[in-house]
Amino acid sequence: MTASRPDLSICIVNHNTPELTRACLRSIFATAGGLGLEVFVVNNTPDTDGAFSALVRDFPAVRAIQNAAPLGFAANQNRMLCQASGRYLVPLNSDTVVHPGALRTLIAFMDAHPQVGLAGPKLVYADGRLQPSCRNFPALLPTFMEATGLWRLFKGNRWMARYVALCDPHTDVTEPDWLSGACYIVRRDVYEHVGGYDAELFPVMYGEDIEWCWRIRRAGWRIAFVPEAVITHLESQSAASDRLYLMYEGSVKFMDRWCSPAQSFGVRTVASVGVLLRWLRARDAHERAAYRRILRLLLTGSR
Q1: How do residues 28-47 score in pLDDT, each as one tens digit?
Q2: N- to C-terminal Cα separation, the chain
């Protein structure tokens, strides 16, 4: 690290999650070792109970930003990324816990692989189970396998992983099409080249990660999965049906922007078949209504 440039600029959005953010920050500073860190936290809601002020007092090294009005995930990350000065940038979810050595491992990997523009760690659930994070860009087989849930029958299958990245055992360094965005390390040159997240296309959450990875790959950079770096990701606390809808909405927006009409139609048709099969197996009226909503989205698009 030089006096003017930290090793890492870590960017976290706090949205009514002060205790999760506190645990995340504690893990960052406890595992940083001798790394030079610049840590931003944007508070996305009014600090009516003083919880964010208390957080800032407990972590005086944090560069705190208080929003006047709530913004989406992409817009909040962009607020921090444009101020960041580190050699590497790390958009990080607040519901994560950094394991010892993870940050140093990611930096060492990027230093050793200058052609890699973005890398992601292995994600695990709170109980230590693998949280698959490797993904494919929209294509027929991966979409069908994910929409139906059939990919779970092939978890850890290296042969199937050649076609469906979710099935990868996540034990070796690989180069998937994209990585889910709970934690990334991004080269500064990449950010300066392709810009940040597309906050206009993705004003809430979900979809901004695949679109960012797409633009990074189009610019000639590689994307890597680094299993030696481990991060616990607790995942969203929102209703599962809402989260699933937002994920499909993000995917449809991505296809409307970057895929040909024929490709988008094919992928959405395959996804519709998978969602229809899930609707047929739905446990109750609430679940069936959630799947009907997703089917309407897939059939009509995001416009």
Answers
A1: 999 998 999 999 999 999 99
A2: 46
> In the 8-state DSSP scheme, what is residue 99?
P
Taking a C-beta distance cutoff of 8 angstroms, is the pair 302, 250 a contact?
A: no
- List the one residue out of 195, 239, 189, 233 whose CA is nearest residue 214: 195
**H-helix or E-strand spanning residue 247:** helix 240-258
Cβ neighbours of 8 (radius 10 Å)? 25
Name the CA radius of gyration of the chain, rounded.
19
Q: In the chain, what are the domain boundaries?
A: 8-133+170-233, 240-300
Instruction: For 8-133+170-233, give the CATH class.
Output: alpha beta
3-class SS shares of the chain: helix, strand, coil, % to 5: 45, 20, 35
Q: Tokens representing 299? A: 């059939």
The gap from C-alpha 30 to its chain's centroid, in whole angstroms, comes to: 23
Global pTM? 0.93
| Residue 79: φ, ψ to 5° | -60, -40
| Per-residue pLDDT tens digits for 169-224 | 999 999 999 999 999 999 999 999 999 999 999 998 899 999 999 999 999 999 99
Q: Exposed, middle or buried, 36 (CB in 10 Å: 0-12/13-18/19+)?
A: middle
